[in-house]
Amino acid sequence: MTKTPSKTPAAKAKPAAKTAKTPAKSPAELALEVAAKPVEVVGQTLERALDPLASALKRAALKRADKASRQFDEEAKPATPAPAKGALPVSPLVVPFPNIPPIAGVQLATARAGFYKHEREDLMVMRFAKGTSAAGVFTRHGVGSAPVDWCRKHLELSKGADARALVVNAGCANAFTGKPGADAVRRVASAVAKRFDCRQRDVMIASTGVIGVLLDDAKIVQRLPDVEAKLVDDNWAGAARAIMTTDTFPKGAYAEAEIDGEKVRIAGICKGSGMIAPDMATMLAFVATDANIAPAALQTLASLYTRTTFNCVTVDGDRSTNDTLLLFATGQSSAPKITRAGDKRLADFRRKLEAVLLDLALQLVRDGEGATKFVKINVTGAETPASARKIARTIAESPLVKTAFAGEDANWGRIVMAVGRADEKIDRDRIRIQFGPLVAAQDGLISPTYDEDKMSAYMKAQELEVSVDVGVGRGTATVWTCDLTKQYVAINGDYRS
């Protein structure tokens, strides 16, 4: 027996295939019909009959209200620090951070002051024992930063005697910031001096980061209590990390030397990856020793060995506004006090100090922005050492030469071009160019032993050496550089954004 389907409401009944045309209702009939319906239905009917956009507007309003509600919910949640922007892969030329023992008379601490949006420490403080000598070498840039001006001025006033503290921030260069920038440095020095019970001029300041941004000194001052509580003797690796900007690895060096039979220690850290060029190399470097060396002698050593180390490296040929090398001698070892840089008892110390500075300088090149090749440029046969340095630097900073290194192309013609462009005295018909042990050109033309396959194989190495003899004298020089890659463009195109 088949069930009979129940009646469906009239509203859901299927319309007949053909229906008689219903005559249009008059306004009065419509009004009566509407009045007989519930209020909700009346509203819906009026929406359809009088304003077909009303329902769409209501739906939009509901969406906005819902979005606002979700926004308030999100704002109520605790803020999560932004991740590190554009975290860069570690350079393939990286070297490990050395094991640096405590240096008597030096304490270090780091903190997050907030100069970066993402989670990272960006503040480093060193405290030195009373009587510490200090020396400095600074940028020759025409637009020196406020911290550079402060250090240079106060080292001159104090003659390098009794340095008590060093404060370094990353993320803000405080360069080209006028009197407000100088005032910010002074306020930091004043706050540190009060906390460490010393004079303002005994506090050295250094900054690195974006040029043209005023230092928010309050960010540093408010962290000083925490920093003082965290001061320890052996945080050199943490200190190196805190001062990094586009660096991909922390940089440090350590050596031990003897002065008159007594052992002394030398430790240093630095930062730098781009805007690296001689006079000085763009970087911040801080070196401390427990040797007892008078300020004048220490300044002589710092100036002398900067020439053969930091002034012999280049990444991109751009000198910085903030270049700073500060050298501190705490006098806390048992070695005797040395008052002259040329003292024979300093012979071993001088060698080891130069080695530490060179180690740090070469790490800057190894961490050059986007670098994949570490390149040593030797120039011999120049008229003078100064001429040799200029030729070597011109080769090392040539974009055409550097991109050839990146492409693993032994394009010795570009070396010839750079040699001639240096505008120094050379003998074209005696020029000799080598890539490692392989002779590319000699006596003014391509070498008869030139082998493209061997050259190509040599260029695949991560570390390269190019030697050029220009045939006019005895002047020699060495400059270290790296290649120029697409990654360098990517890093610097996105530096602020």
TrEMBL record:
Keywords: Acyltransferase, Amino-acid biosynthesis, Arginine biosynthesis, Autocatalytic cleavage, Cytoplasm, Multifunctional enzyme, Transferase. InterPro entries: Arg_biosynth_ArgJ, ArgJ-like_dom_sf, ArgJ_beta_C. Pathway: Amino-acid biosynthesis; L-arginine biosynthesis; L-ornithine and N-acetyl-L-glutamate from L-glutamate and N(2)-acetyl-L-ornithine (cyclic): step 1/1; Amino-acid biosynthesis; L-arginine biosynthesis; N(2)-acetyl-L-ornithine from L-glutamate: step 1/4. The keyword Acyltransferase applies. GO terms for molecular function: L-glutamate N-acetyltransferase activity, acting on acetyl-L-ornithine as donor. Residues 1-26 are annotated as: Disordered. It comes from the Bacteria. The active site is at T282 (nucleophile). Its main location: cytoplasm. The record marks T208, G209 as: Involved in the stabilization of negative charge on the oxyanion by the formation of the oxyanion hole. Substrate binds at T245, K271, T282, E369, N492, S497. HAMAP family: ArgJ. NCBIfam families: ArgJ (TIGR00120), PRK05388.1 (NF003802). This is Arginine biosynthesis bifunctional protein ArgJ. It comes from Phenylobacterium conjunctum. The gene is argJ.
